Amino acid sequence: MFFSRIKNLLGALKPCGQVLLYHRVSPTLSDPQLLAVSPLCFAEQMAYLSRNAVPMALTDMVKAAIEGTLPRRAVAVTFDDGYADNYHYAKPILEKAGVPATVFAVSSAVSAQTEFWWDAIERALLGQNGSLTLQLDLAGESRTWVLSGDPGAYPEWTVMDSFDPTPRHTAYRDIMPLVKPLTPGERSTVLTSIQNQTGVDAGPTEDRCPMTESELRSLVESGLIDVGAHTVSHPQLSGLSMEEQAAQISGSRGCLEAIVGREITTFAYPYGTKVDYTTQSVDSVKHAGFTLACSNFPGCVLNRRVDAFEVPRYLVRESPLSTFRANFEARMRGAK
Ligand SMILES: [Zn+2]
């Protein structure tokens, strides 16, 4: 008890910069991957940070940490993927609270308005009811799933739930991790096959759109929100060759720079855990001219101890403000 109090006290004195990771800000009902935070919840969180922390632009926070001048209670807000709801819901909330943010956008999703693969699979498997047999060739193996049931009766189901209410949910839970490591070409083939067999049109739907090019430009022009790159088509980089990784990493930078008319200096690794990218990915990010890259594992940004090419982040889920506050303050004390 005594030592944990001393640890908390020391933690409170040591600046611990927190980079928060969001994906969507949306009132959506169905969210099996837990990617969305409701606008009300997000507004409460940003108001809390505005009053009780030192919100900073991500690049400013990492620069301050490198120089050893990180303020106590520094926080930076980031979004991965580049959903249009970041523009429609998050931007006005960030502006009202005066909180800067960085949006890491998937460049081909913006330029071609393509649906994110996880949304396409969700819509095909959980957005419909009825029965059919789905056959897919995955990793050289033919697999079949019998799809049945009405997932619409369970809109609040997520992959964190320990049960699958219908065989469609079981198929969704099985197929998602099989598709994630595929190369973009293989993934595209599987998605087309799923869409053909289930009769679902290619998306995106209105509530799952990526930002348009003009929306992305508006973010940058706001002066409060920065844009970073998140590859061309959101592959798991660790499964690609060096050449494919370089094309995904530098290609997204070039595409986004052409869209927003400014230099893009920040990057976020898709999925972002230690198994999702390699040292080659990090080298490729440096070689492409980025000055900062974000990962997706928890940790504080500490003075003079930050790796600017693997910046840790805390994933934020929908939660009551009391939970958000408790987590934020525990990390600030070094207790979490
Ligand atoms: Zn992502």
Q: How would you explain this protein's 3D organization?
A:
By secondary structure, the protein is an alpha/beta fold. The chain has two domains: 2-114 and 206-332, Glycoside hydrolase/deacetylase (TIM Barrel), CATH 3.20.20.370; 117-198. Helix content is 43%, strand content 16%. The protein contains twelve helices and 13 strands. The protein has helices at 2-13, 39-52, 58-67, 84-97, 107-112, 117-126, 167-179, 184-198, 213-221, 242-260, 279-287, 321-332, and strands at residues 16-22, 24-25, 36-37, 54-55, 74-81, 101-105, 132-138, 141-147, 225-229, 266-268, 292-294, 301-302, 314-315. The strands form four sheets. Strands 1, 4, 5, 6, 9, 12 and 13 form a seven-stranded mixed beta sheet that branches. Strands 2-3 form a two-stranded parallel ribbon. Helix 2 (39-52) packs parallel to helix 4 (84-97), helix 6 (117-126) runs parallel beside helix 8 (184-198) and helix 10 runs parallel beside helix 11. It is globular. The two termini are 16 Å apart. The structure holds zinc ion. Zinc ion binds next to strand 5.
CATH topology of the largest domain: TIM Barrel
Question: What is the CATH level 1 assignment of the largest domain?
Answer: Alpha Beta
Q: Which small molecules are bound?
A: zinc ion
Query: What's the CATH architecture name of the largest domain?
Result: Alpha-Beta Barrel
- N-to-C series of helices and strands: HEEEHEHEHEHHEEHHHEHEHEEEH
Number of helices: 12
Structural class: alpha/beta
Dominant shape: globular
CATH superfamily heading of the largest domain: Glycoside hydrolase/deacetylase
The biggest beta sheet, please? Answer: 7 strands, mixed
Number of strands: 13
- Please tell me how large the radius of gyration is: 20 Å
Mean pLDDT: 94
Helix content: 40-55%
Which regions contain 5 or more consecutive residues with pLDDT less than 50?
none
Strand content: 15-25%
What is the distance, rounded to the nearest whole angstrom, between the alpha carbons of the first and last residues? 16 Å
What number of structural domains do the residues give? Answer: 2
